[in-house]
Amino acid sequence: MRSVLPNHTRPIWAEISASRLRDNFHALQAAAGPQIEVLAVIKADAYGHGATECAPVLAGAGAQWLGVTSAEEGLAVRASLAILPQGMSPRVLVMCGLWPGEEAGILDRGLTPVVWEPYHLDLLEAEAHRRNLPAQSVAVHAEIDTGMARQGVTPGDLLERLLARFTTDSPLKLEGVMTHLASTEVGDDPQNQVQMIAFASALQQVAAAGLKPEYVHAGNTSSTDSGYIPQDLPALAAGLGARAMTRAGLALYGYALPLESATDRVIQSEGFLKPHLASSLKPVMTWKTRIVSLREVQCGDSIGYNATFVAPGTMRLALLPVGYADGFRRALSASNAEAGGLVLLHGRRAPIVGRVSMDLTIVDVTAIPECSIADEVILLGESNGERIGADEHARLAGTSAYEVLCGISNRVPRVVVS
Ligand SMILES: *Cc1c(COP(=O)(O)O)cnc(C)c1O
After folding, report:
1. Are the beta carbons of 245 and 278 closer than 8 angstroms?
2. Which GO terms describe its molecular function (predicted)?
3. Which of 34, 125, 236, 408 has CB 3.0 to 4.6 Å from 327, enough for a Cys bridge?
4. Is the pTM for the entire model greater than 0.85?
5. Which residue's C-alpha comes closest to atom 1 of ligand 1?
6. Strand (E) positions, 180-263?
7. Which atom of ligand 1 is nearest to the CA of 251?
8. Which of 354, 334, 350 is nearest to 342 (CA)?
9. What pLDDT score was predicted for residue 345?
């Protein structure tokens, strides 16, 4: 268990189910198929689930590759893997490049950086020369920008110049070539095809430069769910004698975006791009707290900041020690005019009333008379067949499950359970 505070006593925590994390990884690997390896993305502190908690579990489940945000996250993940038996340490891909000062740690701990800027190569080469490392001993993966204009080198001249750096006597080795797709949840979005075509031509440039990467990777949760990109990948990789890999994060934690269609085709009923994966996923995090106070209010009493909720009759209210400083979104607030979020108490849904404040939230337990102080409350998770998911919070907050999950703050300790 970890927390920013040394002696965590506040009754709020997030349980991370190791068995669900393993099951989701296996479901992803099954959906990707035997020809595609799945890189488990644990960036952004494993989407709020705790990267150092999740890394050893995923390695134990057979993950050969983990993806982290930065060198500093990679170093923490490496340290967390020290508990594993010898020979069971997965590779760690640093997905957002590197910054001056990070090259030593990358080489010390055998992290594998994604590179696309010439300065990335300058930093690694200089550090490798300083250490007299042999030719082709530092593996890197080059990212190609095939149409997202975020990270990556553009095919053509810029790629040509980047590839020219991988000479036989360079300490660097082009181990992987990757791209990232912008619109995979929209299965028939023409952008997917455009990006894959650009990727194929970039791979031809790689081959023409005489380079033989071992891995070619693209795609994410949604492309694995739709089955669209994984179908294309093995052939692309095979053209270079490489192995196909895809990178997935969200599904590991038990969520997937609903698949959409650009042409308004109803995806499932037409049998076009069926979700392969979504139905077998289980949320890994159960976010919990306890009731710390109970009170009764009368008809006409106002509740919370700015009195956005006025009791329509006698109500029993429970106070929960969770607020937006924990990442419990303020958009879950409720007024008389507009319902807000819910929590689970004794297996039933209890509505939030009034504004979610920084540290505290009030819920209506009038319909759950057996509630008492210290009762467990589920903020995200399941109980008695009822479920509140990060996707439900996301809908109310006008955002995505990704942002809800990685927005749960460090004030909430993560506890790994079986
Ligand atoms: C975050 C990320 C992924 C994983 O995306 P999910 O939708 O969470 O599966 C894959 N590749 C890159 C480059 C990413 O940044």
Report:
1. no
2. alanine racemase activity; pyridoxal phosphate binding
3. 408
4. yes
5. 249
6. 215-217, 243-248
7. 9
8. 350
9. 97
> Residues in the chain, how many?
418
Expressed in angstroms and rounded, the spacing between residue 10 Cα and the centre of ligand 1 is: 33
Ligand 1 atom with minimal separation from the 39 CA: 10
Classify each residue of 40-51 as buried b or exposed e, where b means 16 or more C-beta atoms within 10 Å of its C-beta: bbbbbbbbbbbb
- List ligand 1's pocket residues with C-beta within 6 A: 41, 43, 95, 180, 220-221, 247-250
358 known member of a binding site: yes
Which string of b and e fits 330-355 if b means at least 16 CB within 10 Å? ebbbbbeeeebbbbbbeeebbbbbbb
Q: Is 279 helix (H, G, I), strand (E, B) or coil?
A: helix
C-alpha torsion sign, points 375, 381, 385, 386: positive
What residues of the chain score a pLDDT lower than 50?
A: 1, 266, 268-271
Pick from 45, 185, 220, 224 the residue to mutate for probing ligand 1's pocket: most ligand atoms within 8 Å of its CB.
220
Nearest to 318 by CA among 349, 286, 356, 350: 350
Is residue 93 a contact partner of residue 141, using CB atoms and an 8 Å limit? Answer: yes
Q: Does 285 count as an annotated binding residue?
A: no
pLDDT at residue 187, rounded to an integer:
79
DSSP labels, 259-275:
PB-TT---HHHHTSS--
What's the number of CA atoms in the CB half-sphere (13 Å) around residue 38?
Answer: 30
Give all domains of the chain, ordered by start, each with its CATH number.
Answer: 33-280 (3.20.20.10), 285-417 (2.40.37.10)
Taking alpha carbons only, the member of 134, 147, 21, 143 closest to residue 94 is 143
User: How far is Cα 164 from Cα 153, in angstroms, rounded to an integer?
Assistant: 13
- Output the CA 415–ligand 1 centroid distance in Å: 24
Phi-psi category of 173—alpha, beta or left, where left has phi over 0 and alpha has psi -120 to 50? beta
The CA-atom distances, in angstroms, between 317 and each of 12, 26, 143, 365 are: 19, 42, 53, 6
- SS3 per residue for 284-327: CEEEEEECCEEEEECCCCEECHHHCEECCCCEEEEEECCCHHHC
Pair 41, 5: CB distance under 8 Å: no
Residues known to be catalytic: 43, 305
Q: What are 153's strand-pairing partners?
A: 144
Q: Which two tokens stand for residue 66?
A: 């983990």
Closest to 213 measured CA to CA, from 154, 151, 158, 162: 162
How far, in Å, from the CA of 232 to the mean position of ligand 1?
18
Find all residues with CB under 8 Å of 360, minimum gap 6, and list them.
Answer: 319, 320, 321, 322, 323
